[in-house]
Amino acid sequence: MSQTFWSLGVRGMGQSAGSDPGDITMTEEHLRQLQGQSIRRTVQSELLSCLPLVPFGYWCHSLEVTQDLLDHLIELPSCEIHRLGEIADLVTSVRLSRIRKEKLALAMKNEGYIPKLLQLFQVCESVKNTEGLHLLFDIVRGILYLDKAILFEVMFSDECILDVVGCLEYDPCLAQPGWHREFLTKTTKLQEVIPVRDPELRQKIHQISRAQYIHTIIMPNPSDFEAGFLSTLNSFISSSKEEILQALQKDEEFLPEVFAQLTNEATAGEQQWELMKFFKEFCAFSFTLPEKRDEFLQTLAKLGFLPTLEMLMGMGDLQVRSAATDILSYLVEFSPATIQQFVMQEAQQSENDTQLITEVIEQIICSPNPEFGGDNQLMEILCALIDPEKMLAIASNLEIFEFLDIFYGRYIHVLTAPLLADPSEEWYEIDNYQTAEILASVLELLSFCVERHKYHMKIFIIKKDLLRRTLVLMKSKHKFLALCALRFMRRIIGLKDELYYHYITLGNLFEPVVNAVLDNRNKCNLLKSASMELFEFIQKEDIQFLIAHIVENFSDALESVKYIHTFQVLKTKYEQEKYQQNEKLNRYGPVSVL
């Protein structure tokens, strides 16, 4: 549970269960209006409205059953220790009937039953009545599973919450009681990282934090059979969060104060982390509300949200950076146009490289623990930011082309720095696992650029001789990195671009691939399979320019792998093409240039 006052995780949100015959859910306001005979009429009316057309005899039977249930209202046992077993049985017995659950919840509310039960808990705990405490655990959990909002308001109130949590400490399945009350009162004191001036809002925040704690930490995951029992609790938490969010957004001082403290260099590290946890959860939930999302983003834009996020991503505190990355990921998922527009405007207006794209790239290539997957999230963010197809929603083709001009003039050198930094041919030998992971991430991104930025990437690859530098990595001791290098070449050849073909043949860039086949001739591994797939693609697509180059330059070397059918087919295709060319030459003679 978060140490901030805003301990409202997105988990636990759900949808209300749909209505079916005998399954009528009533709101608290509705229940208050139902008295005496009106209860019978209302329930019968709602039953009639949702039941399908059935024979008259069935209706008579249904109405008799309904009338019988309403004529025998639930009578609650008196709140006494010796009757706790009866109470537990009663709570358990109604779980399969919506109507009986409604009636039990209403009876408990009207008779002030929950506070009376909690008084019994205090007595049982004081005299260490273990049997009574175990029964109270079953009773309180059963009441929560009634899933009624009229009871949640009582159970999560300041007066009752600690005793409710106390009852849930005495799970009969546990050898020792839990420590939920201590956690709520000492470990998490619901510190307000930014003071909330409205006392009612503050109380609401505390209430929903406790409800979230009970739902997420204490209550076990319901079985498939019980999944619907928590729908009202989910809705209660979700709607309360939405109310709190709207109230905080309308507070003219709250969010500005959050941003001011986040960007203030004087803010202590722990305080800044608490602010970031709050802001992350604030954004995580706000972005999931489609009808409120645009309004929320407009509010954030006025406060300089994206420049602030950019600054936080460049901070030394790993926790703060990680939270900022999560927020950026939410934004890319739920409102990619917002972030893309910001990136394009920033690229056009600024001449320096201290920008959001630079921050993302530098975190990818400087990741201290790339194997933990943090850079995968950053890679997804970067791909979303530089994807021309996604930019079409906010920009013209000309604007996108101009943005790519800026990207390849200002940012691509940052991304390729790990590949181009060491000019020696033996640089692949010094790679450790961390370096290999980073290089693999870079190659995945460059492969994305090959497909999405065809014109710009082609110029960059040829100008920097990037493919040659990449294929050196096929000698790496880390086979996953060698595979990434080979896949990069495969993406390039897959474009069927003649300029690329000339670049590859002039640079003799098939040599590392052929060497990989020869080195693995007696092995069965992914690198050999991927190499063969490349040659098979060339053969199936009948790319004569490359076939001729491979046969003319590597035919002798490939004699040792005659058993590989693909190379025999390539040689046959080459000879057939050469024969056809000679036939044309003999038939028509040499072509005159005059």
Automatic annotation (TrEMBL):
Serine/threonine-protein phosphatase 4 regulatory subunit 3-like central domain: residues covered: 86-576
GO MF annotations in UniProt: protein phosphatase activator activity
Gene Ontology terms: cellular component: nucleoplasm; protein phosphatase 4 complex
Single GO BP term: DNA damage response
SUPFAM superfamilies: ARM repeat
Name of the molecule in the record: Serine/threonine-protein phosphatase 4 regulatory subunit 3-like central domain-containing protein
Organism: Serinus canaria (Island canary)
